[in-house]
């Protein structure tokens, strides 16, 4: 697979997404261990829809997360909802396979996205949303410097329980 080292970290790099990876993304986006955390478990993702999404978003700051040592795709991330006049946006990410979680990759990805957003997109405020049960992600976000700014209470229903949607952000001056 041809990946391009757009944003390079210590162990990972962020590359423009490849349409050829659509099948891998479809596998991940139909896996409850991934989708429960990103709020899309009720959706069914088809190969055709994912291929179309990749093509439509190829120039919209959506990236493949790739390991430097072996050029292996491990997840996806992006900066969305960019408001240039207000200099704010949102970030999101997921690591696909369980074997690649709990290795600090999320922290590295966020640092790469924040550097890119603040240094190249001229953003001042970057926000994310996370569900209250996802303590692993919340701890990662706090480590990077995100602070909780509010909650939408009981706004996510999953497996018979309600959870809060937690809003967190970070300012350029806090980096």
Automatic annotation (TrEMBL):
Q: Does the keyword tRNA processing apply?
A: no
Top-rank taxon, per record: Bacteria
Alphabetically sorted, this entry's keywords are: Transferase
The N-acetyltransferase domain, residue ranges:
12-173
Write down a Pfam family by its short name: Acetyltransf_4
Alphabetized GO MF terms: acyltransferase activity, transferring groups other than amino-acyl groups
Q: What is this protein called?
A: GNAT family N-acetyltransferase
Source organism of the structure: Clostridium muellerianum
């Amino acid at each position: 697979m041809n990946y391009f080292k757009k944003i390079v970290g210590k162990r990972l790099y962020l590359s423009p997404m490849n349409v050829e990876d659509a099948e891998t993304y479809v596998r991940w986006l139909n896996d409850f261990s991934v989708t429960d955390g990103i709020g899309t478990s009720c959706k069914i993702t088809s190969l055709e829809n994912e291929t179309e999404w990749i093509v439509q978003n190829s120039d919209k700051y959506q990236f493949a997360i790739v390991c430097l040592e072996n050029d292996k795709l491990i997840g996806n991330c992006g900066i969305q909802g960019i408001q240039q006049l207000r200099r704010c946006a949102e970030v999101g990410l997921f690591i696909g396979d369980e074997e690649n979680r709990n290795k600090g990759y999320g922290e590295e990805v966020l640092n790469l996205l924040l550097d890119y957003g603040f240094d190249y997109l001229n953003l001042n405020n970057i926000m994310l949303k996370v569900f209250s049960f996802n303590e692993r992600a919340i701890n990662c976000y706090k480590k990077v410097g995100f602070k909780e700014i509010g909650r939408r209470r009981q706004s996510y229903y999953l497996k018979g329980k309600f959870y809060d949607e937690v809003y967190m952000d970070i300012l350029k001056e806090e980096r």
